[in-house]
Amino acid sequence: xxxxxGLDKKSILEVLEFRKILEVGLVPLLFENLSKEDLDYLExxxxxxxxxxxxxxETITELDLAFHKKLCLISGNSLIxxxxxxxxxxxxKSMQDVVVALGNQTxxxxxxxxxxxxxxxxxKQTANILQEHIENTIHSIRQVxxxxxxxx
Length: 152
Fold this sequence. Notes:
Layout lengths: L8 H17 L1 H7 L2 H16 L5 H19 L2 H9 L1 H15 L2 H15 L3 H26 L4
Helix pairs in contact: 1-6, 1-8, 2-4, 3-4, 3-7, 4-5, 4-6, 7-8
């Protein structure tokens, strides 16, 4: 797989749909393998994301990706980790396009909620928030592209 330059709306939506399936599906593994060090890392990541100015798109993208990559790493599943590595360029471009289109205010809120649910040991809530986070992003991307299409 080669890095993709300039994803279209359909590609971004497909990446998000894939991420929803992958990340929500790995929640049970997260709770089997989650350590205090993992929670510390996620908390530092969330705090850094919350403190990063909106115009620092690259930093926001890196922090956002690092959060989701850490979830894959915590799973301990070598196939999930490898797929995440193989698709990292695609995820990075997709994430950057999403941040440019939508900003990252909702991402900051959702990452905090995901982290808090994980810290409280609430597997079901973690899965629900992850799913809501990605579905909200999918909905927002659809809304933004509808406003940009001629005649809308």
